[in-house]
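Students often ask why we bother encoding 3D structure as a string. The short answer is that it lets us treat folding as translation between two languages. Here is a chain of 46 residues written in the first language.
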Amino acid sequence: MAAKVIAQQGPEDALSAALKMLEGPLPRVRAAAERAEVRLYERSGP
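And here it is in the second language, the structure alphabet:
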């Protein structure tokens, strides 16, 4: 859920939050952070 929320923020803030979540203790949190990171990069475009 947190990954969905941060993905709606500005790109810099959202990416920063996702990167912090990548170091989370729970596998599902890390997986959500990876998905959010991919979506953020997709939105940024070429």
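Translate back mentally: Residues 27-44 form the longest helix (18 residues). Keep this in mind for the problem set.
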